[in-house]
Amino acid sequence: MQNFELFINSPAYIYPFTLLLGLIIGSFLNVVIYRIPKMLEQEWKSQCCDLLEVERKEEPKVTLSTPNSTCPKCGHEIKPWENIPVISYLFLRGKCSSCKTSISLRYPIIELVTGILSVAVICVLGANWAGLTALLLTWVLIALTMIDFDTQLLPDNMTLPLLWLGLIVNAYGVFVPLETALWGAVAGYLSLWSVYHAFKLVTGKEGMGFGDFKLLAALGAWMGWQALPVIILLSSLVGAIVGIALIITLGRDKNIPIPFGPYLAAAGWLALLWGNDITQAYLQFSGMG
Description:
By secondary structure, the protein is mostly helical. The protein is 70% helix and 0% strand. α8 (210-223) crosses α10 (261-286). It is globular, with a radius of gyration of 21 Å. The termini are far apart.
């Protein structure tokens, strides 16, 4: 027990361990980000075939564990030593060991980002229940960010368990009291739901997806209703800046939808770690503090 306490209380031990754990989880998140949409697509196809009573074309079933990862170009099966986070990418010089096709830099970046953000969580919250549960939230938010960026989907099989987990965690008062978490989930969902329907009533267009409602509800369940204004303001500000920058610099069509989930996820993560500091800084800047 004494050795364990020394481990979790010593930066020399806990931070490198957290970084290594984050890199490993980041490698797994690459699989989640790629395969969850594929799994949903297969499920939807199966449901459509059952509904229309037509024969479904057989295809290999995709899960998080099967089939084994392969090179999309030549089909070379990735060996365990070729799947070491970051190190394998550098050793292979960013290319498939078989056909020498370039491997996207995105994979090691996600691994590195996951490792760095994991260390930040433990650094701010500590190696305690708050820190450990915040790691889970961080990892899911990273996966949701990339899935929404790729597909403009925030899967229910990730957002809804995240919401329930937030309520369960706060049943023990880890971040906020359970009552505050409950109303945070309700207010998070209804706030964006109201904006969605008001925007649709005025313009006849859908401004966001239902997944955004559920993600904000999950963040409310984790951090309580008091954190929602900070999350909404931060996500809206960053979303507006990025959207305008894309239109100006890349000539992006303003009618092409931009996923809002990544901005909600980033704002929620910042609010989890520094929400009070951000609020106090804003109040002082505005002269209300």
